[in-house]
Amino acid sequence: MRHTLWETWSGLRRNLSMTIAVVMTMWVSLTLFGIGLLSAEQVDLIKGRWYDKIEITVFLCVKTSHAATCDAGADATAAQRTEIEQVLKDNPEVKQVYYESKAEAYAQFREVYKDSPILSTVGEDDMQDSFRVKLQNPEEYEGVVSATQGMKGVENIQDLHKYLDPLFTWLNMARWATIAASVLLLAAAALQIGNTIRMAAFNRRRELGIMRLVGASNWYILLPFLLEAIVSALVGALFAFGTLAALEEFVIKGKAALEIKSIHWVDWPQIQWASGVIALVAVVLAIVPTLVATRRFLKV
Fold this sequence. Notes:
- With about 300 residues, the protein is of the alpha+beta class.
- It is about 65% helix and about 10% strand.
- The protein starts with a helix and ends in a 7-residue tail after the last helix.
């Protein structure tokens, strides 16, 4: 074992510049890969939080409405409200239906604008009554919208999916772009590790030949090269851990979370999970190129 460790140290020292290059490449690529993983987690956290709260709101006609489905100068009738409510309750996409009267809407309005001068200019009759719809599955909402959109007594339908879905589309594109870029860098790091080990094995080819002739096992010959690659990869992974921890502490907790409190940001459990994945990827990237690069030098 002492010989293996000495050979590993000697290899790292002899190829110091290449080792540093491998460490830096692994650092950058693993950090970007970790950011991609955290981006995916962040999108899921935002989506889970907002999608669970999304409700479709069906606003009913009032005297000032100008929609084609409204009678000029008249509120939605009781019969129209009953029909709209029944259509909503019969829809399999709907979990629950809440009716909010003008009085309830005005009470909420007074609470929100209690310190605003606009409160004195708006009365209860200016409010819209509405149906708030809780969905069975927040991602399945088209049927509710299409079923109520043209009904008499419905002025308009507020559907937050129309605004949030494009946002999530762009966020998903951003996270996959980050992961794709990191995969390319990880491939470059794997090639660099393979080339470094190949050069080290080539420079020691006579020594390796003698070891094969005296009966040394392949694993005895290969182990120093494997340890050399694993050490380089894990050092790069440690730097990546530090970068992600700094990102969490100073960027997310120190700035973003303080300025945008409505979003559930990634926290230390997600950082630990990403670090574990990074460590596993680093070890795989060290082992596989080393096995490929040293294969020809292990043949007797």
